[in-house]
Amino acid sequence: TKHENDGGTVLERQEAKLKPPPMYQVLLLNDDYTPMEFVVAVIQQYFNKDRETATQIMLKVHRDGKGMCGVYPKDIASTKVELVLTHARKAGHPLQCVMEEA
Ligand code: TYC
User: Fold this and answer.
1) Is the CB of 27 inside a 6 Å radius of any atom of ligand 1?
2) Has the ipTM of the complex gone over 0.95?
3) How confident is residue 4, by pLDDT bands cut at 50, 70 and 90?
4) Taking the C-alpha atoms of 71, 77, 82 and 87 in order, what is their torsion angle to the nearest 10 degrees?
5) Which terminus of the chain is more solvent-facing, meaning fewer CB atoms within 10 Å of its CB: N or C?
């Protein structure tokens, strides 16, 4: 909100300018090789979903080519992508995980 100090200078309070931080969707991408059970386990472990919800998300990715696992602030989304990719590579799977601004 606008207000004036003693010298007559017009100031704006911070709260009028602060926008909420952008949020990022974390997506899994389909491929022909990663086992369905591995993808379900990844969604449960890294995105805090129950087994039924994780299975629904996995099947959507399998059918549509991609699917959303969650929406987070930038650094949390980035960390989740990194952890999922590291886990998949260690297991020898080509699973891809990406983030995009929501
Ligand atoms: N298409 C894979 C299969 O048939 C399963 C799969 C689902 C892979 C989701 C990746 O993000 C993925 N085994």
Assistant:
1) no
2) yes
3) very low
4) -30
5) N
